[in-house]
Amino acid sequence: MTSFGSLRPLVIALSCSVWACSSATREENVIEQASTFADTAFCPAEGPITQGYHEGHDGVDIGGPLSAPIFATAAGSVTASGPAQGYGQWIRIRHDDGSMTEYGHMHTRFVEVGDHVNGGDRIALIGAEGQATGPHLHIRTYNREGDGHGIDPVDYLGARGVPLPCQAGQGGGGSTTCSGGDGATVGAINVKYRALGGCDSVLGVPRSDELTTPDTRGRYNVFDRGSIYWTPSTDAHEVHGAIRDKWSDSKWEAGHLGYPITDEFTAPDGNGRFNVFEGGSIYWTSWTGAHEVRGAIRDRWKDEGWEKGRLGYPTSDEHDVGSDRQSDFEHGSIQWIRATNETKVVMKANP
After folding, report:
1. How confident is the model at residue 273, as a pLDDT?
2. CA torsion through residues 110, 216, 202, 284, sign
C-alpha cells in the first residue's frame, strides 16, 4: 500500500456540526448512522461485454469468473428471485424510479421476493445456469415494469453515470475533480466525498484517481489530508489525521483492523475522536494520541463504559505481557488471559 507519507493530515480539531455527529453517539449507533449512498446507479458486475443488445438478444451479457459478485444497479424492491426457464435462476428488481432490472444465470442468490435493496448491494454470484455456455451475467433493463421489451443496458446505465463495461463498485453521479488536485473521484467514493463537502471538505482535494487495494477487495482515493476506502461489504468511509496514521502503522486494511466501517466521529464525552474498523477501533485524544483497541479487551472496555467509564481512554495499543495480552488506559489496564480466555481489569494505585 502506498503510504503517501508526504500528505500527512492536519490536527483533528473539528466541530460536530461539520461532521454531523453528536456527543450522545455511541459506536453501535455510529455504525448504523454511517453515511448511505445517494440514489444513483452502480456497476452490476465487472467484466467484458461478451454479447451486446440486438434483435433476439434483449439485454447484455457480462462475462466474469464463476462466483464473482453481482450488485444491484440501484435501490428497489425484489419482485422475482428463484428458478426461471432459460436463466436457470433469476432476480428482478423494481427500482424506486419505476424502472426495472433483471439478472440471470447466477448460481447463488442472496435476496428474496419482498426484500428491499440499496444500490451497490451484493445480490448474487455469477454462474452458468440455464442456457449458458459459460459463467456470465445476463442483464436486462426496462423503463417500466411490465414493458414487453427491454432497452439496451449500455444506454440505461450510461444515462445514470455507469458506462459498460464497468468496475465493481463504480457508481453513477458523475465524478469530481478539484482545482489543484491530481485525480478524480467516481462511484461510491465520489458519493461519499460529495457528502463530506467535496473539494471544500476536511479531506482536501484528490491526490490520486481511484485505486485498487493490494488485497483487490477494495477501492480507495487519497486526498490532501486523508483517504476514502470502499468495499462491497463495508461501503465507503473516510479516515484521516492521527487515526489514519495509526491505521497505516497497523498495515492498513491488511492488518488486524481490516477496513473502516464508519467515518471519524466525536466520542460521547466530547473530547476524543474514533473510527470503527472491521476488527476493532482506533481512539484519539490530544493528550493520549491514537491507539487501537480490539477483541476481548475491547469488549471488556465496552462493558466498563468505554472512555466514560473508570478506565478512560486507551494509552497503548494491545501488547504482550508474558503469554497474555494487555491494553493500557488512563486509569488502569485490561488484560486478556490466554489460558482461561478471560479478561481482568487492573486499576492504577491512587497517588
Report:
1. 97
2. positive
